[in-house]
Amino acid sequence: MNPNRAASAFPEGISLCDFSGPQLRVIDALLRSSPDVVFVHDREGHFLYVGVATTQMVGHPSEEILGKTCTELGFPPEVTQQLDQDRERMFAQRGPVSGELLSLTLQGARAFAYTFSPVSDSEGEQCAALCIARDVTERREAERERLRLVASVTDSEGRLRALVNNMVDGVITIDTQGTIQTVNPATLRLFGYPREELIGRNVRILMPEPYASEHDNYLTNYLQTGQAQIIGIGREVTGLRRDGTTFPLDLAVAEMRIGDQPAFVGTIHDLTERKRLEQQFLQAQKMEGLGRMAGGIAHDYNNLLSVILGYAELVEEGLSEESGLLPSLRNIQGAANRASTLTRQLLAFARNQVTQTKVVSVNTLLRELTSLLKSLMGAQVEMVVLFSEEEGFVRIDPSQMEQVLINLAVNARDAMPEGGKLVLHAANILLTDPYRGELGRMPLGVYCQITVTDTGIGMSDAVRERVFEPFFTTKEKGKGTGLGLATCYGIVKQAGGYIWVQSAVGAGTTVKVHLPRVEAPAAERASERKAAPVGGTETVLVVEDEPLVRDLTVRALQKHGYTVLAAENGADALRVLGEHSGPIHMVITDAVMPLMGGRELIERLRTLYPGVKALLASGYTEEDFDAQVGLPESAAFLQKPFTSAALLRRVREVLGED
After folding, report:
1. Degrees (nearest 5) of the Cα angle 101, 107, 111?
2. How far is CA 34 from CA 60, 267, 276, in A?
3. Residue 88, Cβ neighbours under 10 Å: how many?
4. For residues 267 and 555, what is the distance between their CA atoms, to the nearest angstrom?
5. Does domain 276-348 have CATH number 3.40.50.1820?
6. How does pLDDT run across 126-152, given as a tens digit for each residue?
7. SS3 state of residue 656
8. How many helices (H) and strands (E) does the chain have?
9. Which CATH number fits domain 539-655: 3.40.50.2300, 1.10.10.10, 3.20.20.70, 3.40.50.150?
């Protein structure tokens, strides 16, 4: 099967077959740091994504794996059958399914413990299966050896007890009634109990429902029939701590005898870190899908904004200050500029935003926003702003940072319907110990910290874990889009920062934003007046597949003296040049076009006109475009949307003033 056909199993914008941009680096670094085997199957079992460890296990590069099934890759029939059955069971149950299998790899026979988790599209339909598998060969061998030793307690009981007591995994023994006989220190740490509260209690105390209710049936069935559901097999279950919280664990159980009485010993391995990796991967996947969607929207939208702003500017040049049309025209320009701001907001949470960053003071940002925030809070909310004792500076787009603070303040207000207190606190902190949060690890360094604390209703753990998901909201229909905190997340991450949420039902919410602290800026220079657009007499080739943008560019250049040739795509440009006998001084081309993109066109033209200047236009930032596609050597860049004046200034800069 063709990989492109496999990718179509994912809905538009969620395919994992063609990662690109900053998100790829995040996900790739995340997966490279883990020994786990990670892949994604569509409903028919075709590979849509494979991690580094997967390619090493299979022995083929990713391009030879994508789009194929396990059978087509030569997996043993029993392995293929087991994976297919568990994947289908996952879709049928609409929830995670775990298993374990033996597989022959390049390193020999290995045991893998795996979990299939469903991946849903924007409609909530399960469209694919994410599998994270771990090589547990050594651990299983060690467990079997430990269980054998524990099960054959003899004169070496003292040495065995020392071994069990120093294990990282929990070890627990029970009798045939499920009564706990012994526990090692790791078990006490995992579940939070003192030893005296466990010995003599039924093991059900360590299990949430439905495991607790089903446990006695498992034991009775095994003792009567010998049919094992857990014993001798192992499975992934959920543990219940003394404080009522739960955690995922891998449980391996073996039968043993103490004297002439049968008993059971279980080894417990905490899976919390592995589940954290799964959540990070799924979160990154959602952001990548929405980023791709937002990028496509921005390209078309910025073309339209370029047309609106450009033609409005051309009309304005023909009107006098006394014209009655001028106020209406400037309203059009203002609306188009606000629309450009909306595009930046849409791209912010996707971390692919057009930004205008500069070094700004956190205290200054808070001072300038205080009046607005107080008016947003209303009379029922007391607002307190605490400034940092020492001035702290960060590099960020100021309008974006304002958006973050406004979103956080409005969310806090909505969480205090009967009134309350909102505290904004700026501080400089030196992080000397790595901080691990639910969405990643914050490295050591100096940060400017902004804390937003409210006394509102708070949120449950289930809600808190999803607050940064795009379109997730707990507000009534029509009162929230679910993009507020997702936008905050995107803005902060794009600025190289971190955002954390701490909350509990009835105990309010605290949001901490950490941004890398930078040096104070040099004294601001006096603003320079923008020079009037300067024309020229050179011959310019304009290549743009959007007719309105192409016509606007041609008109602006011709109006200021340039000789202009126009083409709608790369192939058309080569035809136009074939009919042109004079020189070509410059090419202005859109970056993304059908058949032949701007980069390829520039490279082709330079073989025909070695000294031709090049200007590439795109709705992406120059940094993102260069990272994803790569700017041609010596080519200039123009950000969309642009005005006619900005276009003419940039053209003159590239051609030179002579």
Report:
1. 20
2. 19, 23, 12
3. 15
4. 76
5. no
6. 889 989 888 888 877 777 776 665 555
7. coil
8. 20, 24
9. 3.40.50.2300
Write down the domain spans for the chain: 3-135, 140-270, 276-348, 358-516, 539-655
Q: What is the pLDDT of residue 526?
A: 34
Instruction: Give 258's contacts (C-beta < 8 A, 6+ positions apart).
Output: 153, 173, 181
Q: Which CATH architecture has domain 358-516?
A: 2-Layer Sandwich (3.30)
Q: CA-CA distance, 414 to 416, in Å (whole number)?
A: 5
Amino acid at 332: I
- Predicted pLDDT at 451: 92
Structure tokens at 221: 């069935």
The answer to whether 450 and 426 have CB atoms below 8 angstroms apart is yes
Instruction: Name the more confident of 71 and 29.
Output: 71
**How far is Cα 352 from Cα 23, in angstroms, rounded to an integer?**
9
Name the superfamily (CATH) of residues 140-270: PAS domain (3.30.450.20)
pLDDT digits (tens, 9 = 90+) for 546-601: 888 888 889 889 988 999 999 998 889 999 988 998 889 999 998 878 778 888 88
User: Is the pLDDT assigned to residue 277 strictly greater than 60?
Assistant: yes
DSSP annotation string for 266-307: EEEEE-HHHHHHHHHHHHHHHHHHHHHHHHHHHHHHHHHHHH
**Cβ pair 640, 303 in contact under 8 A:** yes
The letter for the amino acid at 348 is A
Residues 6+ apart with CB under 8 A from 650: 615, 636, 638, 642
Q: Helices 484-494 and 326-348 meet at what angle, rounded to 10?
A: 80
Q: Is the pTM of this model over 0.85?
A: no
Tell me if the domain spanning 3-135 has CATH number 3.40.50.2300. no
According to the model, what pLDDT value does residue 342 have?
57
Q: What is the dihedral of CA 585, 590, 595, 600, to 10 degrees?
A: 50
Within its chain, how far is the Cα of 339 from the centroid? 25
| Beta carbons of 511 and 452 less than 8 angstroms apart | yes
Residue bearing tokens 């399914």:
97
**CATH fold match for the domains 3-135 and 539-655:** no
Using alpha carbons, select from 165, 323, 182, 335 the residue that is nearest to residue 258.
182
Kindly state the helix (H) or strand (E) to which residue 109 belongs, with its residue range: strand 108-120
